[in-house]
Design brief:
alpha/beta, Rossmann fold, eleven-stranded mixed sheet, three-stranded mixed sheet, 14 strands, 39% helix, globular, glycoprotein, signal
């Protein structure tokens, strides 16, 4: 694990600001404005507390292996039957719901935990994997609060989610990187620091999953996720594509990848913070001018110093660039930066605590087969380990995928600040590929659901960008019906059609 002491961290950040700032006083003002809250460990804890999550452990690094441990590179899973399930007319016994562990092939002692939910519609539906960001947050956040088959009721029972993505796909949720959720290791060297480690682990898991379930291996395959998964997803897609070209193991029928409110190209997205904040009335023109004069150029320089191989420089660039974000927050107060329409009440922007309570019930843990492994909803250890990866540009590998006919959908809720739609739109438009000019010049069209405009879409060839109305950072939570329709039409190749021309809505079937 790369360790950066706080004095060295701040010194590197100050050195970058010194190049751009005209005086030491300005440097001090800028660093003071960022505040101690910008330090990574505090940032990670704030992220977790804002979701009303209180994991007992920082990461799942256990003292020793479970007595039932199996280090063979083979999936060990069991049929999943949650207790307290309210069927609502659909029998879970008729569906293939599973949970299990995969001993990661290229690790010291890591095991990756996953859920699999067979499509409620047809086993031949696409296989869709979902990756939650953080970095270091469990995919169970999405499973129970966004697009999974179930919702958690107040009495800790489960109810069918009317707009679960399993209505149109076979769904995989993975706790990754190691240390997140129920995934664990007995060796701290298994904590990942970059996208090579992350994507190789996911690729090894996928190979094992399809070996265990060859009946799904020929289905179309799509990678999806949100937030920091804007890094994971392109790297994983490139790894799958590379494996297919090299004829490694089972061929994976990769058709596309979708990034929701993601961080993909920090060099462009961090510069867009002030533009978005000014457009949305969060800051004044004077604030905009000051941040753009000092902090934005410093961020640009820091990212250049990071490059692709930097360690200390990349970690320092995280601090330098996040002065932009923290400076905006210092001016807007207790706003919910995942959804600027809302306030954070008591520093808790959302209440996801029912998930932790549910997953710590003995009956649930027995159903999952996790033994005494802690559930780490969001890991500060994983968050900090990925700091050297944070400011790297993951857009660079996407053009090759587009040229080879693999579809990309970038979508973003319009009221998210932290991974806002404007920054995502800017990097998508700036990306150089053979269809760039045609994409930039393509018209914006209405994305309609139930005859109402649910978003604005741009599309050319393999590339689509969708700005989703009335949604924040977590689009499937805020606009579940629109998100389900988005997935259905995109995987069917009909996303660009109007609501009137699109196939019958799955939610109405």
């Amino acid at each position: 694990m790369v360790t950066v002491t706080r004095p060295l961290f701040l010194l590197a950040a100050a050195a970058v600001l010194l190049v751009l700032s005209p005086s030491a006083a300005n440097i001090a003002d800028d660093l003071r404005l960022a505040g101690d809250s910008n330090f990574p460990s505090i940032q990670a804890k704030k992220l977790i507390r804002d979701l009303n999550l209180f994991p007992r452990e920082d990461a799942n690094i256990i003292q020793k292996e479970s007595p039932n441990s199996d280090r063979n590179a083979k999936i060990v899973e069991k049929p999943l039957r949650f207790p307290n399930f309210v069927s609502g007319g659909i029998s879970v016994d008729d569906l293939g719901h599973r949970a299990g562990y995969y001993p990661l092939q290229h690790s010291y002692a890591a095991k990756m935990f996953y859920f699999f939910f067979e499509s409620r519609n047809n086993k031949k539906d696409p296989v869709v994997i979902w990756l939650t960001g953080g970095p270091g947050c469990s995919s169970e956040l999405a499973l129970f609060f966004e697009n999974g088959p179930f919702k958690i009721a107040d009495n800790m029972s489960l109810e069918w989610n009317e707009y679960g993505w399993d209505k149109v796909s076979n769904l995989l949720y993975v706790d990754q990187p190691t240390g997140t959720g129920f995934s664990y290791s007995s060796d701290s060297r298994d904590i990942r620091h970059d996208e090579d480690g992350v994507s190789n682990d996911l690729y090894d898991f996928l190979q094992a999953f399809f070996a265990e379930h060859p009946e799904y291996a020929e289905n179309n395959f799509y990678i999806t996720g949100e937030s920091y998964a804007g890094h994971y997803i392109p790297a994983f897609a490139a790894r799958v594509h590379k494996g297919n070209k090299a004829k490694e193991g089972t061929h994976i029928n990769l058709k596309g990848f979708a990034i929701g409110n993601g961080l993909t190209d920090p060099g462009i997205q961090y510069k867009a913070y002030t533009d978005y904040a000014l457009d949305m009335g969060l800051i004044r023109q004077a604030d905009y001018d000051r941040i753009n004069k000092v902090m934005v150029p410093a961020c640009e320089l820091a990212i250049k110093l990071c490059g692709t191989d930097g360690k200390i420089a990349c970690t320092a660039s995280y601090f330098v660039c996040n002065t932009i974000f923290s400076s905006i927050l210092a001016r807007v107060g207790d706003i919910n930066y995942y959804d600027i329409r809302k306030k954070c009440e008591g520093n808790l922007c959302y209440d996801f605590s029912p998930m932790e309570k549910f997953l710590n019930l003995k009956a649930v843990r027995d159903a999952l087969g996790v033994g005494d492994i802690d559930f780490v909803s969001c890991s500060t250890t994983v968050y900090q380990a990925m700091l050297v990866d944070w400011m790297r540009n993951l857009e660079v590998g996407i053009p090759t995928l587009l040229e080879d006919g693999i579809d990309l959908l970038v979508y973003a809720g319009e009221y998210d600040l932290i991974c806002n739609w404007l920054g995502n739109s800017k990097w998508v438009h700036a990306m150089e590929w053979s269809g760039q000019k045609e994409f930039v010049n393509s018209p914006e069209v209405r994305f309609t659901v139930d005859g109402s405009e649910a978003g604005i879409l741009k599309n050319h060839g393999a590339l689509s960008f969708l700005k989703v109305h009335d949604a924040g950072h977590m689009v499937p939570m805020d606009q579940p019906k629109a998100a389900l329709e988005m997935l259905k039409r995109w995987t069917e190749g009909t996303l660009s059609k109007s609501g009137d021309d699109a196939p019958k809505m799955v939610a109405d079937m």
